[in-house]
Amino acid sequence: MTKRTPFPLMMIALALTATGFGQEAPGSLSISLDECVLRALKDNLGVAIQILGPEISAEGVSRAQEKYIPTLSLSASSRKQENASYSYLDASESLVDKTQNFTFMNASQSLPTGGTLSLDFTGYKTTTNRRGQTIDPRFGTTMRFNLNQPLLKNFGFKTARREILVASHNLGISEENLKQTLKDTVYNVESAYWNLVYSIENLAVRQQSLQLAKDLLEKNQRSVEVGTLAPMEVLSARAEVATREADLIQAETQIKSSEDQLKLLLNITGDEDKRVTALLPKDKPTYVAREVSLEEALAAAIQNRSDLEISRIGLETDKLDVSYAKNQNLPDLSLSASYYSPGIDGTRLIYDINPIDPAAQIIERIPGGIGGALKQTTSFQYPNWNLGLTLSIPLANVFSKAGLTQAKLNMRQAMLQLENQKEQIYLEIKNAVRSVQANYKRIQAYTTARELAEQKLGAEEEKRRVGMSTNYMVLSYQRDLANARISELNSIIAYNVSLAALEKSMGTSLKAKNIKLSDIAPGLED
């Protein structure tokens, strides 16, 4: 690649120095293109909004993963029941029962297969004044393991983790949306920056053209004073000076408009906008010849375009929806199993006669408590289990496949949209490559036109000096030279902007500027 600086740009730089445009005045901000890009990515409000997207989506993933965090609960309750005794076999006066229930642990855990595993560890204590009791107070504990596992509908790792997978896809989409916003911002800043450069350089050309017209007017006035030129020639020169002064005013207005556009992207507003009265670009309109291969550009776009990646992620979500819809059409067959160990202990009451005899008296108390019940439970002294299958066949799943059909149609639509998107990108890349190539050729052509315009003006001024040309012809050639310089400048700006547009179309704007996503949004990976 070769780098060229067109000859008139050196003349323009001299003009800028002469008029004070290239010097940083109080209140002006001198800034390069790279500095503009970095500031925009950090301060632009649109970027700041999109940075929150991945953070919100990441919290969505964390929330979906909470499904596999075990739930724990503890409880305790106490109850007293007192009723009138209607039988001497129960109690002599009132019948009083007291119960205390405890849940030492209730833990539930969702399984990756779609089932649920739980552990219940409960206990109770009862006391009563009923006649004939052989254990009072009585303590009981139970440890129970429960498993509920779907075997058809809602079974499987993918089905059980569907919410997590969808949340992860949403996170990927948010990250790609952020990347796309960054790429768009880079292009918008480059375009606005080069437009400002063009406006400033255009003003310099207009100033130079105005100065040429003023010089000619001054020469004509001296020639009229000495009687070698007709007064009419002065009028035509004055008219041309007035016209070029109007062009100068328009060029100055264009600078302010370009500055405002760039300031908006850099978020220079409020008090800072009042302090920064002018933006002075450090980079001058030069160009670098770049060989662009359509095949390479298209391959880069397929790999790096954020909108394509968003469509791919969306297609994965649609595939997940199809898989889930198929699963939901299966019969609901569930396995339930439990394994539990009870334990009972308490103070044993020994009577002198049959306990149910109203005359029976307690002659001995054998102490017991919750410790004995816990020992029985934890040693699984009395193991128990149950196992069962439940089959449910909703008639809606037998006669209707609307949900599955809709999911398949959505996936088909997403696949067609992805292919259509690739075709549109192919056309966009072709146009971008063609624009780069055409603008480069325009630079060559306008450079030649500008060189010829300079030669023609020089020759015409020489002819006028010896009396073989008129002021009208010289002024005409001056306008031609100014237009040629502006056209050359415009072609260089258009070439740089078309290169930025090509990088945007390929999705490589961030790579080209060596910008990492983690530098803009800490915590995210490129």
Walk me through the topology.
Layout: E1 3-4, H1 7-19, E2 28-31, H2 33-43, H3 45-65, E3 71-84, E4 94-110, E5 116-128, E6 135-150, H4 157-160, H5 162-225, H6 231-265, H7 270-275, E7 278-281, E8 287-288, H8 294-304, H9 306-328, E9 332-351, E10 362-366, H10 370-378, E11 384-392, H11 395-399, H12 402-465, H13 471-506, H14 509-512, H15 517-520
Parallel strand pairs: 2-7
Antiparallel strand pairs: 1-8, 3-4, 4-5, 5-6, 6-9, 9-10, 9-11
Describe the structure.
There is one protein chain. It contains 15 helices and 11 strands. With 526 residues, it is α+β, with helices and mostly antiparallel strands. The strands form 3 sheets. Strands 3, 4, 5, 6, 9, 10 and 11 form a 7-stranded antiparallel sheet that branches. Helix 2 crosses helix 5, helix 3 runs antiparallel to helix 5 and helix 9 packs antiparallel against helix 12. The longest helix has 64 residues. The N terminus is likely disordered.
Strand segment count: 11
Class inferred from helices and paired strands: alpha+beta
H/E topology pattern: EHEHHEEEEHHHHEEHHEEHEHHHHH
Question: Which regions contain 5 or more consecutive residues with pLDDT less than 50?
Answer: 1-23
**Largest sheet: number of strands, sense, barrel closure:** 7 strands, antiparallel
From the alpha-carbon coordinates, what is the Rg to the nearest angstrom? 44 Å
User: What is the percent of helical residues?
Assistant: 55-70%
Number of helices: 15
Please state the average pLDDT score.
87
Distance between the termini: 29 Å
Classify the beta-strand content into a percent band: 15-25%
The coarse silhouette is: elongated
